[in-house]
Write a structure and sequence with these properties.
Blueprint (H helix, E strand, L loop, with lengths): L7 H9 L1 H10 L80 H4 L23
């Protein structure tokens, strides 16, 4: 398995300013967002456009994702322990192997249109949606 490395310019822009990030996303809709393996610990990502982003193996520990758009994002094996998830749109998101055990404000409704597996770690006592094992 190859090393997973994020695009350093994208990580820098995301860390610097969410408004500038969202404007860049609006101006560059065809650019593939590669944040795979990025350390985004404690980052304030409120309202960030992370739609269809590659966030495989990313570290989002205690990140504030409130209101972020993560539709279609690839969060396989991401560490989202303690991430703030209120109002996050995660429809179509791949959560296989992700650790969201202490994610705050995550609801069963948010998980309904996601993809997960037996390795996805959910908050207690949340149960995986039935469609995860289809």
């Amino acid at each position: 398995m190859g090393l997973i490395v994020a695009d350093p310019l994208q990580v820098r822009l995301l860390r610097k300013d969410i408004d500038a990030w969202n404007q860049w996303r609006d101006r560059n809709p065809d650019v593939r967002v590669d944040l795979s393996g990025a350390d985004l610990t404690r980052l304030d990502l409120r309202l960030a456009n992370l739609r269809d982003a590659d966030l495989r193996n990313a570290t989002l520990i205690l990140a504030n994702l409130a209101g972020a758009d993560l539709r279609g994002a690839d969060l396989r094996n991401a560490n989202m322990v303690g991430a703030r998830m209120i109002g996050v749109d995660i429809r179509g998101t791949d959560l296989r192997g992700a650790d969201i055990r202490t994610a705050e404000d995550l609801t069963p409704q948010q998980l309904q249109e996601t993809r997960g597996d037996k390795d996805t770690v959910l908050p207690e006592p949340m149960e995986p949606p039935d469609n995860w094992y289809d």
